[in-house]
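Deliverable D5.2: sample structural annotation.
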Amino acid sequence: MNIPEQLGKYEIKEQVGRGSMGIVYKGYDPFAERDVAVKVALSESLKDKESGERYRKMFFNEAHAAGTLRHPNIVEILDAGAEDDHCYIVMELIEGGETLKPFCNAKNLLPLEKVIEITFKCAKALDYAHRNGVIHRDIKPTNILITQEQDVKIADFSIAHIMTSDTTNTMPMGFVGSPRYMSPEQVQEDVITNQTDLFSLGIVMYELLTGKHPFPADSFSRLIHMIINENNAPLSAHRTDVPEILEKIIHHALQKNPEKRYKMGLNFAADLSLAFDYLDKPEEEVEVQEKFNSIQSLDFFSEFPESEIWEIIRACIWQKFDTGTQIIVEGDIDDSFYIIISGEVDVYKDGALIGNLQAGDCFGEMSYLSKAKRTATILARNHVDLMKINATLIEQASVECQLHFSRVFMQTLVKRLSETTAMYVSRHD
């Protein structure tokens, strides 16, 4: 296949990959002054009299389906076009990245924490795509990339389906995708919803955890039968160090009946967040009623009805820290917000002590709000009990509770910013 030195405004450099839908080249955008990935359709497929038009439609489906998606964990589509006999799609270049495929081998498994992190990011990215009307339909290890910075990118929306009332410009339904990663409804060519992607992600997670496929079939017909009718072997059949919470998550993700499966990627992500906190091994939890009694009197919860306090308790992690323990570290990235239940903590900036917080005070507000880098280090001055509130889990609470929490949270944030400003002014007077 002869490729010109330039397509549109893009300079073509070298081939970096090849798939069923085209060849991927490293290119250069002289206007944006950056390297890009340019996927070029196979000319012989385009010229086929019987299937050429369908292939062209499938090729540009990726740009059509994913072109409006802007998410840090989805490969960004930048442009698409046709020039002479060449059709091409321009994408974000993931230089030095690799797919998840090598990590689905029992001899090359990633740490549990990394598997949870990868799956969490994929679940959040799919939730975003689904809420924007796009079903990927081909989630598998080779379509998920790990960047050099160890971030995650979902790629290849070439057979994605757009959920609109007018589907004339979307991919046809039917048996499309990779059979080993299809949901029961997908292999039966039944109605496809966003939940098919979550089933596929469950298979990927299972492979990352065990190095084994949950439906180990030696023939196509046997594979289809297992996906539709048979339950996967438990994770413990392959390794003994997997906590029970991950068994429950896999069980939920791989439910045959979509009604029993995770409804949205956000629900999947919320359980993964709980699993991640479980692996952090916080100190033994106190009884639930003791939690309620401890926080009911705090100023932060003074306006909450009891029912919403219980919701917040269910959406948080209770943690204990001994004297001198680092709770958060300046420069780390996190989306958790902390409320001190008992004890005191010291606040350090650039190694210097700048403040002290006591029971009822909060910290971590800005990171909770924007998942920005921590701006200070927090150390336990004495024995400290904390509520760690995760942004994803709060989204699982009722709408009323979320609104109430957001209002109180913003009031707390404004108060903190006012106090910080006053402290800064007094120091420079």
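Annotation notes: The chain has three domains: 6-92, 98-279, 288-427. The first strand starts at residue 6 and ends at 7.
The annotation will be released with the project's public dataset once the embargo ends.
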